[in-house]
What we know:
The chain is an alpha/beta fold.
Amino acid sequence: xxxxxxWIVVSRSQLLTDLLESRxxxxxxxxxxxxxxxxxEKMLAETDTSLVVIDLASVDIQLAxxxxxxxxxxxxxxxxxxxxxxxxxxxxxxxxPNVTAGVFYNDVSLEVxxxxxxxxxxxxxxxxxxxxxxxxxxxxxEQSDNLTIREREVLQALLRGSTNxxxxxxxxxxxxxxxxxxxxxxxxxxxxxxxxxxxxxQTHLHEVCx
Length: 210
């Protein structure tokens, strides 16, 4: 169980922050600090924080992903909770076994979230079963080490803004071959779109290739 001091709520919504401010400080004896996504990293450095709550209704998924990676690298023991986790978009790549402690959909009440957070504070996790059904140890694990060299090359080309045809020409293969590489790479890293793959690659590929 980690000591609670300050929680950071990363959100562009003042309404949500006000709502949480009316409940959580009394319920959990914490001080809430609201941060715009762009200012969250600075607030982390300046505040003794034990929990980061990210509002995915107002924070871009890519920014949320990058912020969680910063938490993982620089703040050992700090946990992340996602509110308004999307059901229509496959965002399972956000799940990180070292950091993610809670995931809550739009239709989950604050009462239910409150009860779940009580468990999170005891060192447990609260993540919907359907998100972890096909994962190891309750999470979708990162699969960067399982990518082939060619799959990494294709993902790097995505980062440069290349189309499938461009990548095929660069690697002297057919477009259908590139689609196959992308399909396999997407499955390994747990994403379902080019945008999600680019977000993943921005953080992971340079680490894998160093």
